[in-house]
Design goal:
Blueprint: H1 6-11, E1 13-21, H2 27-37, H3 43-55, H4 71-76, E2 83-88, E3 92-98, H5 106-113, E4 118-124, H6 131-142, E5 147-153, H7 162-179, E6 184-188, H8 212-218, E7 232-233, E8 236-238, E9 250-254, E10 259-261, E11 265-269, E12 273-282, E13 285-287, E14 289-291, E15 295-300, E16 311-314, E17 321-331, E18 337-338, E19 342-347, E20 350-363, E21 370-372, E22 376-377, E23 382-394, E24 406-410, E25 417-423
Parallel strand pairs: 1-3, 1-4, 4-5, 5-6
Antiparallel strand pairs: 2-3, 7-16, 8-9, 9-15, 10-14, 11-12, 11-16, 12-13, 12-15, 17-23, 17-25, 18-22, 19-20, 19-24, 20-21, 20-23, 24-25
Length: 444
């Protein structure tokens, strides 16, 4: 196994990407082949896969077993859970989320792709674009994933025909472009044989593009959130009240976006109280500035009533607070989401009561038309909702901030996650509707 020096690793960029596709399109095999051929598999891991493959009567190692970690996955030959893998090449570091293909596990694809900068959607060259392919393309567009790769797999089973690849690529590109996917790259591969995964294929001389790994290593990664709207959801208030720190009061959390600096004017939401940052503690040491993904403690000049769930933002760049949220959602629960549904809405570190006031439309995946006023969303449906919250929330548009423009709806009875939501406009604009919902119960 090749080694990478500490200096080389520090110089590389990080790419978060997710794989998706229909059942048996070969996602896990592709990931296994990628890890194997890029020398990112430890010897003992490969030996374990070889033993497991031999026990199943297979002559060659089943590379899909490198990612299908659950016992049920190996027994059924399918992916159920989201499998996360971390690996690196001399050019880049990667965090990979291998997501399931079954319709009932689409919710896991939403989880895996929610933080991805690139999504790989696999298509079986024999089957072409199917409903689940369109659903995954819609979710990638909804989550505003910047880059989408169409991997047309199992080209060896269609005799590596260029015409088959071209037809699938044209159909998918037209569909995804209509959804608003900003960049689509189509690559013909055979994950089982290794064609165009890490090494160029000797069977497809008609293809002049990059291999799968070459594209992953070279795709631009423009996810520097340190220049976005600065946001710190407060997770914990630190008050030691001991002899060493008798008056210490700090507000701890992970910076969701942007950069905070000492002496900067900030506002605490939803109260709207303004103050200045008097200090920033990072890993127990004072610093002058801190930025996205760092876990810090902010010290403020004024003694303000702040608790978990509040949001600290620059005063010059504060989002508006509102109790009325319009969003595009992907419903992930088995039970339907209905108009009048009483839920809990979790936004950042804050959870409030809410009511689904209206469901203006549901997206039809076949032709991207909008079915108006469906009354409910069932599992895996994508639609528009209007929600009224019990308390004002400082929300950003999802187009501006994937972290503070997203939320989840929770069943207050058992804590089940019902729906993943993205605030503001999406790839499809719903028709205007009137608010006529009976809000008996939780009256906001």
């Amino acid at each position: 196994m090749s080694t990478i020096t500490t200096e080389e690793l520090a110089a590389t960029t990080l790419l978060r990407f997710a794989t998706a596709g229909s059942v048996d399109d070969g996602k896990s095999t592709l990931v296994g082949r990628l890890l194997h051929d890029s020398k990112s598999v430890l010897t003992d891991q490969l030996e374990a896969v070889e033993r497991a493959s031999a026990n199943r009567g297979q002559d060659v190692p089943d590379l899909a077993l490198l990612t299908d970690g659950l016992r049920a996955e190996r027994e059924q030959g399918i992916t159920i859970d989201v499998a996360y893998r971390y690996f690196a090449t001399p050019r880049r570091r990667f965090i990979l989320a291998d997501t399931p293909g079954h319709v009932q596990y689409t919710r896991n694809m939403v989880t895996g792709a929610s933080t991805a900068e690139l999504t790989v959607i696999l298509v079986d060259a024999r089957n072409g674009v199917v409903e689940q392919t369109r659903r995954h393309a819609a979710i990638a567009a909804l989550l505003r994933v910047p880059h989408v790769v169409l991997a047309v797999n199992k080209m060896d089973l269609v005799e590596y025909q260029e015409s088959v690849f071209a037809a699938i690529a044209e159909e998918f590109t037209a569909y995804a472009s209509e959804l608003g996917v900003p960049e689509i790259t189509a690559i013909p591969i055979s994950a089982l044989a290794g064609d165009n995964v890490v090494e160029p294929s000797a069977h497809m001389d008609w293809y002049g593009g990059p291999t799968f790994l070459e594209h992953l290593e070279s795709v631009p990664v423009a996810h520097d959130l340190s220049h976005c709207h600065a946001r710190l959801p407060v997770q914990y208030v630190i008050r030691p009240q001991n002899a060493e720190h008798p008056d210490y009061r700090g507000y701890a959390g992970q910076i969701a976006a942007g950069t905070f600096r000492v002496d900067e004017s900030v506002t605490v939401l939803p109260s709207g109280r303004a103050t200045k940052i008097s200090g920033i503690d990072l890993l127990g040491k004072p610093v002058r500035a801190a930025w996205t993904t760092q876990s810090v403690t902010l010290l403020l000049e004024d003694d303000i009533d702040i608790s978990r769930g509040d949001l600290i933002v620059p005063s010059k760049d504060a989002p508006a607070t509102t109790q009325d949220i319009e969003a595009t959602v992907c419903h992930v629960a088995d039970a339907p989401l209905t108009v009048g549904h009483r839920v809990l809405l979790k936004h950042g570190t804050r959870t409030v009561k809410a009511i689904v006031k209206d469901i203006p439309s549901r997206l039809t995946l076949d032709d991207l038309s909008l079915h108006p006023h469906p009354g409910q969303l069932v599992a895996n449906d994508i639609g528009r909702v209007k929600i009224r919250t019990a308390e004002p929330l400082p929300v950003d548009s999802y187009a501006d901030s994937r972290r503070t423009g997203s939320f989840i709806l929770i069943d207050p009875a058992d804590g089940t996650t019902l729906t993943a939501g993205m605030v503001g406009e999406s790839f499809a604009a719903p028709e205007p509707v009137k608010d006529g919902t009976d809000d008996d119960g939780w009256d906001f």
